[in-house]
Amino acid sequence: MEKLLLVAVGGGIGAVARYLVSGWAAEHIGSNFPYGTLIVNVVGCLIIGLFMTLTTEKYLVSPHWRLLVTVGFLGGLTTFSSYSYETFKLLEEAGMTMAFYNIFSNLIIGFFATWVGITLGRLI
């Protein structure tokens, strides 16, 4: 039961953070592209790379922290299902170029952010 509670709490915090970031991005950057989803996916990649490197290579922490942060918080924060749907809608409404831009941005920048997180984790 404790593990489920950790995932639920982390997921709730992550989902609220995603909502706030998406609203901020639409207001400050624009709503013609799913910038909020891109931001949370890239930040989520950075956090998982950094956190997992620190907690598996550098510091001994309880597995409960990994549940709270990676499964819970990052599971609620990152939005692959939103990314998939928004990419499909971009394909339908804005064309292949915008859809591929979204795919490329999330995949390449997200992968790069994961590498940066791992590298930072190993330097700390």
Task: Explain what the structure shows.
By secondary structure, the protein is mainly alpha-helical. The chain contains 5 helices and no strands. The chain has helices spanning 2-28, 35-58, 63-77, 80-93, 96-123. Helix 1 (2-28) packs across helix 2. The longest helix is centred in the C-terminal third of the chain and has 28 residues, at 96-123. The radius of gyration is 16 Å and the shape is globular. The termini are far apart. 30% of the residues are buried. The mean pLDDT is 94.
**Cα shape:** globular
Number of helices: 5
Low-confidence stretches: none
Percent of residues in helical segments?
A: over 70%
Total domain modules? 1
Number of strands: 0
The main sheet comes to: none
Order of helices and strands: HHHHH
Mean pLDDT across all amino acids: 94
Percent of residues in beta strands? under 5%
Short description:
By secondary structure, the protein is mostly helical. Helix content is 87%, strand content 0%. The protein has one domain (2-123).
Strand and helix layout:
Blueprint: H1 2-28, H2 35-58, H3 63-77, H4 80-93, H5 96-123
Keywords:
single chain; 124 residues; mainly alpha; 0% strand; globular
